Amino acid sequence: MEEFCKMLPKVELHAHINGSVSESTIEKLVATKQKLDHQFSFKKGSTATLKECFEKFRLIHQLTDNVDAVYQVTYDVIQEFCDDNVRYLELRSTPREVTETGMTKELYVDAVLRAIRDCEAENLDIEVKLLLAIDRRNGVQVGQDTVKLAQKFRESHPDLVVGIDLSGDPSVGDGRDFIPVFKEAKDFGLKLALHLCEVPALQETMDLLCLPPDRIGHGTCLHPEAGGTQEFVDTVLTHKTPLELCLTSNLIGQTVPDLDNHQFKFWYEKQHPCIICTDDKGVFSTSLTEEYQLAAVTFDLSPNDLWRLSLDSMNYAFCEEHLKEKLREKWKAAKPGMEKQFNLKL
Ligand code: 6MZ
């Protein structure tokens, strides 16, 4: 199954740039700093609290406090996803400014976009798009500024900047405060991928679900057994809002008790659009191949099921229809070789 999952052309729709940084990139970045000796990722099989997960991002942010580092991380992350046979990748990242190094939010986004363009120029077999992330901790004004920044960069890079993400520590702030900001983003043609119900959140969820977002990140606690409500479930089903699901991340962060109780099962059985994603492949020491494998083992999925999951994920990408069509050709091209190698009919 491992070999099959590796060869499978894949779609990654939920990857935070700084959480995706690999050990080898960390080594390069640490070499540029003095006295930074931390553990930047969780070992396989470990568990943590969500707070401890967010502490890792804080440590990584100390390494990516300048445009060169932001460029390097983005560039390496794209190469690594490409090596993992990810053919379409949506990255998301929170624009950050660091006065001491002269990094402004504009320069931050510029560094990310330059890395994407440079990978494009190398003709890598991967299409990359960008969502700008709003960290809920930072409040509405920052959210507003992020949407303005996205609008600006969408004008200069209409083919790359596709949406807005809401993320950050789910226990902080009230997502409803951002609703006017999301409406403005939507009016401007930006898509919305919102972290929702990563932990039980009865207050804000309904209003955010009714926007509706174009995709939901995690949605761990939407269903009644996990602290949500039937009304949440019905609303998601009615809008057919796709869910970005990250098994290892939820397991390590302990937002699910174990994988058998992961929300993937609940939604997949309802034939609701589910997308397998990594979240933070660096921090959680995983890859998209491993996430597919884990889903296969945990939920008894066949190669055909995995093939469908990866191909269908293309439907929920925030890119133009003609690009989706072009990318689906990759699955067509890979099919005969995979059928032969694994002796099956896909
Ligand atoms: C919520 C998360 C997250 O933006 O600096 N982030 N937000 N839940 C999660 N589940 C574990 N994983 C990552 O990447 C790091 C940032 O992404 C968000 C957090 O805001 C984190 O600081 P960027 O590239």
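^ N6-methyladenosine-5'-monophosphate complex. The pocket of N6-methyladenosine-5'-monophosphate is lined by residues 16-19, 53, 57, 93-94, 133, 135, 167-168, 195, 198, 249, 253, 279-280 (CB under 6 Å). Strands lie at 10-16, 86-93, 127-135, 161-167, 191-196, 215-218, 243-245, 274-276.
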